Amino acid sequence: MNPVVPDSPENANGGPASSASAPVAPSASPAQQAPLRNGKEPSGASGAGDPALSASAAVLLADVMEGMGRAPKSLPCKYLYDAAGSRLFDRITELSAYYPTATERAIMQAHLDEMVACLGRRCLLLEYGSGSSLKTRLLLDQMSDPAGYVAIDISEEHLAASMRRLRAAYPHIPMRALAADYTTSFAVPSAEFEAARAVVYFPGSTIGNFEPREALDFLTRMAGAAGPGGGLLIGVDLEKDRPTVEAAYNDAEGVTAAFNKNLLRRLNRELGATFDLDAFRHRAVYNLDEGRIEMSLVSACRQTVRVNGHSVGFAEGEPILVEYSYKFTLARFRRLAERAGFAVQKVWTDANRLFSVQYLRVR
Ligand code: TRP
User: What is the pLDDT of residues 79-117, one digit of tens each?
Assistant: First the structure.
């Protein structure tokens, strides 16, 4: 269980969540409420072998070396979202080629009445991966007597900044910020809110960034977090033609490439790694057989990179897999949702059927 961060998590390090973080009761007394950082423990707590590394850096190192030992090599995509990565991702969402954000926003604007009707009165909204919470504002503007909003994000700095803005804009809505890796288990402070029901908000088609098996587990956990009478308002990207998808993940301005390469920059900074950012290129290919776009960093030459005392060799053209983004058919997503314990109550799409927003009710 991960700690709850009560207010603005300013003094955070933006580090990744650790599976080894200490459990903290959600309703901690004020004295306990100081800087609880998900995954951050007094240094030296790791078994990764380098006493100079903080516990969060040791977890990062262990995850990186595990990925470097795989065939093909891979890196966990959650590490894309440090402070700089979160800012670059915000820029991706503003690109004209990146259709998911604008399409999802338009769907929400067109059907907001029906969406807030699904949420109902006194709803507690739990957002997983809140980022800048921009689409959330549409809901907060229209919800009927909201019981509260809990924003969960892995990037503490980004979370603190967006919560400051949100609290100023919605002083009447009780809010909590949770700096956590939502793929691990963490305590949802629902008891603090007088809510009639809890609804998880999970936009952006981030569900597509999980492998099918993990997506099922994760949806099942979200059904548990929402609980009886609760639900899930989720953005789900749909299968479509190759050029549209590939353009969204290979933008001409190179923002997506910069976002992807920022992961290597992070490893250089936090682990003293020696990745040459010019010696890797971003690649995104739509794999129609698997129904997913595959994002990699490809080594431009034969090279050796040092990562905290380890040597990692790359052949010319060798990829590091960074992320998949699965695209769904409505039928396939419905099967997945039903297996996870939901019933699909509403599906909204755009006229071109690029994207969908769905309300799933906990069965
Ligand atoms: N959830 C986003 C998506 O699948 C994440 C994303 C967008 C992404 N562009 C990316 C991840 C580029 C890695 C690289 O669309």
Answer: 999 999 999 999 999 999 999 999 999 999 999 999 999
Write down the pTM of the prediction. Answer: 0.85
pLDDT confidence bin for 21, thresholds 50/70/90: very low
Apex 1 CA angle, 325 and 81, nearest 5: 35
Q: How far is the CA of 104 from the centre of ligand 1 (A)?
A: 14
Q: How far apart are the CA of 256 and the centre of ligand 1, in A?
A: 8
Q: What is the CATH number of domain 99-240+339-362?
A: 3.40.50.150
Paired with 295 in beta bridges are: 284, 323
Do 164 and 8 meet the contact criterion of CB atoms below 8 Å apart?
yes
Asked whether 296 lines ligand 1 (CB < 6 A), one says no
Domain ranges of the chain: 33-91+253-326, 99-240+339-362
From atom 1 of ligand 1, which residue's Cα is the shortest distance away?
206
Element counts in the chain: helices (H) and strands (E): 9, 13
